[in-house]
Structure formats: structure tokens, C-alpha cells
Amino acid sequence: MTLLSVAQMNSQNDIEANFASVESLLQQSKEQGSSLLVLPENFICFAAGKQRETAEQFESFQQRLEQLSHQYNIWIVAGTLPCPFRPDGTPVPNGRVRTTSLCISPEGTQARYDKIHLFDVQVSDGVGGYQESKNFEPGNETTVVKTPFGHIGLMICYDLRFPELALCLRQQGANILTAPAAFTYTTGQKHWQLLLQARAIDSQCQVLGAAQQGWHGEKRQTWGHAAAVNSEGGILASVETEGLGLISVPFDLQQQQTIRNAMPLMQHRRLLQY
Q1: Is 211 exposed, middle or buried (0-12, 13-18, 19+ CB in 10 A)?
Q2: Which member of 45, 83, 115, 132 is catalytic?
Q3: Active-site annotation holder among 41, 66, 132, 137
């Protein structure tokens, strides 16, 4: 059995303060015996309009995170970082960037996933409308990472609303789905927990939802409630306090296989055309 940790943060625009929080979370995870720490979306800098500026430091951030992973001997799913180039190294055009999640082992970066589904929606909150596509270019490739404790399928925030992505990751061998997020307070209150549970039930994967919580500037408020859900959709743990928080939950690959054998959803699935 393996312990997996999921973080909640209240990241602001102070990068060094955010890194200090990351190191504190790593220390706690290591003390608890965890093999993995999942960080939330925008963990390194949560500042509207600074995506391109922050993206210029992508490789520097990546190196720091690799050093921390090695220092604490723990895997990290590095929430999201704005990245100015595509996986093939070509620059993202038109002043946009990509929302990138890195999976890092103590030996270095093992995989990268660029957020496929962009949050272009109207929300009844202080911001009102969100248009991620204005500043971000969507990715177009799924990512599953092999680790000593199971295969991780990488997702990001709004991706949770699309069951076909979770199912695709399961078909590619995922045992665990990571979902770094910064759900708005309004949408999070309505759907965050339900979506984590639904994707776990759909895919029979353990789902780890790292979250931002609280105010980020004067208008943006995130829901928080970082949580972990087991392969049957049951909530293992969630953060119910404000600000920085951490939960660590067990993951048993053999137990998951027993669940899947008892209800073989992938074998029963039929592709329907509407």
C-alpha cells in the first residue's frame, strides 16, 4: 500500500512565498511517508495578466522542482505552470502560453501534459466571464505516466467536466487521475466534489483533486476543498479548512484491481453514436 498526498494552497503573485509553501507541503508529505504530492493549478503564481511573464521562468521553475523532488525523494505532480513552448519545443504563437502539468520523479521530469479543455464560460461571481483561450493555447495529447506505485493519468481543472478524457486515460492504463484545480467559488460549491466522484466512478481510478482556496486579488475567489476519491467514488479525505492544507490517503493497486474485476466496466462499454 502507498500513501499519496494532495495539497490545497492559497497562491498569490509572490513566487518565493509560493515556493516556501510548496517546500512546507513537501516536508509534511515526506514526514507522513507519502510517495507523491499533487499541487494545485497556478501554484507558483496566481496573478491575472502575468501568464506570459511567469512563463519566461518555466525552465527555472522546472529545475527547482526537480531539485526539491530529489531532495525529499518524493514524486511531484507540479500542478500547473504557464509554458511558452509546446512539447516539441516550438514557441506558442500570438503571445499565448500553455497550461502545463509536470510529473516529476526524484530522478527528474518524467512527463508533461498540456491542458486540453479551456475555461471559456460565464460565471456569476466577481469576475463574471472567463476566457482562457485568450491567453492560453490548448494541448492536444493525453498523458499517462508509469510510476512505481501505479500509472498516473494527468488532467487539469476544467478537464474534470469531460468524462471521455478520464475514460481515455483509463484505457491507456491509468490507475490514478490527478486533477490540479483552481475552481471558482461558485462552480466549486456546486460541482467540485461531484465531479471528482463522477470521474472516479466512470474510470475506476483513484482521483486526486488538488485545489486553490480563498481570495487571489480583489475579485477572484476559489473554492478549495482539496480531496481524494477512491476507485469506487468514495471520498477518502478532504481539506475543510481555509488556506494551506494537506491530506494523505492510501492507494492499494491490488484492491483497485479487485474492484475492477468485480465490475468490469471497460469490457462492458459499448461505443454509441448519437
Answers
A1: buried
A2: 115
A3: 41
Going by C-beta distance under 8 Å and a sequence separation of 6 or more, which residues neighbour residue 40? 7, 8, 9, 11, 79, 80, 180, 181, 182, 210, 211, 212, 226
Q: Which of 45, 103, 157, 205 is catalytic?
A: 157
In angstroms, how far apart are the furthest CA atoms of the chain? 52
Residue 157 appears among annotated catalytic residues? yes
41 is an active site residue:
yes
Of 47-61, 170-184, 203-217, least confident by mean pLDDT is 47-61
pLDDT in tens, 86-114: 999 999 999 999 999 999 999 999 999 99
Active-site residue flag, 232: no
**Whole-model pTM?**
0.96
